[in-house]
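Notebook entry, structure prediction.
Reason for the run: the old model in the group folder had no record of what sequence produced it. Starting over properly, with the input documented here first.
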Amino acid sequence: MNTPAYVYDKNRILGNIQKLKNAFPQFAILYSIKANPYPPLVHCIASQNIGADAASKNEVLLARAEGTAPDQIYYSGPGKTGIDLTETIDHCVLIADSFHELELINRIAEERGIVQEAGIRINPNFTMNGTPGTPGKFGIDEELCTKDAFAAYPAVRITGIHVHVQSQELDWEKIARYYENVFSLAVRIQQEIGHPLTFINFGSGIGVPYQEADASVNLAALGKRAAELVTIYRPQISAKLLIESGRFLVCEAGTYITEVLDIKRSRGKTYLIVAGGLNGFFRPAISAFAGDGHAAAEPLFTARDAWRITSDATTPETEVVDIVGNLCTASDILAENIRLPRAAVGDRITFTHAGSYACTLSPQLFGSQKKPEEVLLSPDILSH
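New structure, fully documented this time:
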């Protein structure tokens, strides 16, 4: 295998899919394509009857090309244009992110002589922590979602809601309270629009453990509480229930592999110069920039040291090194002052937690270097 490269473990992805299906049998699962849009990986996930959370027109078209049915693709990204909507309207479930988007959908529907079903993304008056809602770029503020407001779009029938307030949460009780708030919001929206919703998208939120002190989300407890909420709200809510997977399916299934190109010792420091630094895997570089205590800024930055770094060097001798890339900038740093086995040119360095927000988040055009390869790996198949 050439380096730099991203290797994705197909069996681990399939196992993670089964974990979510087991925990939430009354919910449909959507794969958040923005986490990793590598086509063979998207196809693998779609083959397991997992729908798609699409954040752009191109993600809608990718999901269709890789086998996802139109009624399983939910297009919810902000800033949709008339062209975006026209080219996707027959290939997905549209979710309007603003009143302007409702206006665009209404115009397209009138031109077609139809009433177009669509969902709305809502910026709710609550957060994952239970505090009041805040201003935001996503969705329509909850208090603005009224019968009179929607009456301005007679060619659009509101059929669903989408709510998402936070990624990467590890506290199952916070997620459960959030689910309850979304159910309550759905009841109110039904009253406003005067007919039952056909879908409720609860968004993402289920995180993965990055650091040693992190504990995985208690899926058994969260699933049990979700089932209780379904029982409580089913007399009022008949809608299809959706959960976005966020990074859960792919993050821990991905490994970034690079190679030591040179070793430089300068005034007491040792630098391992590797292929594909910040232009190969940007998230470690951002972590190197961020100071201790820096607040999470998903998906660019989760936490310091949010991956395990290993080397295939076999020598028992170790040394403290900086891992830096081969770009012509001093900011091309993947790790500082870490202890690894003493390296030689040609040794390979691996980073865990590279399955989500990794390859496509990296500024691969910077320096005109070779782009990383991607591989979907299973015991008997290599898919390039």
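Summary: DSSP finds nine helices and 18 strands in the chain.
The old model has been moved to the deprecated folder.
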